[in-house]
Amino acid sequence: LVARGEVFVVSMLTGATRRITDTPAEERHLSYGPDGRSLVYASERSGRWQVMEAQLRRAQDNGFTGAAPFTESVLVANEGDAFQPLLSPDGSRIAYRQDRNSLHVLDRQTRRSVQVLGKEAVYSYSDGDLNFAWSPDGRWLATRTGFEDTAEIELVDATGQAARRNLSRSGFTDIRPV
Length: 178
Fold this sequence. Notes:
By secondary structure, the chain is an all-beta fold. The chain contains no helices and 15 strands. The strands form 4 sheets. The protein has a 4-stranded antiparallel β-sheet with strand order 4-5-6-7, with no helix packed on it. Strands 8-9-10-11 form a 4-stranded antiparallel β-sheet, with no helix packed on it. A 4-stranded antiparallel β-sheet has the order 12-13-14-15, with no helix packed on it.
């Protein structure tokens, strides 16, 4: 969870709480790795939003609560803002917003990002108004496109290769795909 701009982990079994970040910057948009050994989030430490990761160091540790040591690193640091990170179901890729509008996918192994939805397809009016979700197989991202009065829900290929697929085609404002 995020409280006062800092990241905390709380055990659902015991209620034990551990502070993960302790910075003067704001952190938000948490995403847990599928194995529970990594946490991805956005941080505004350098004056712009970056995608960060906290990852457990030792194989014998199975969670962040307690005294398990972890390493924090920057995953995405561009000239603009990179935020709203969301790990794919298998944890191999991270989708994130670049400069509030375009949608990118980072391959964690190659460290290369690809733009899967350009800024011409959507406009952000306020923080958190553009959400997206991975398909269970990790092939697609469901997201809002268009503008406030004409927003549609579309499937976007996570590789950036295939054409977008409009799912809602309603003529009304459609938001928050899951």
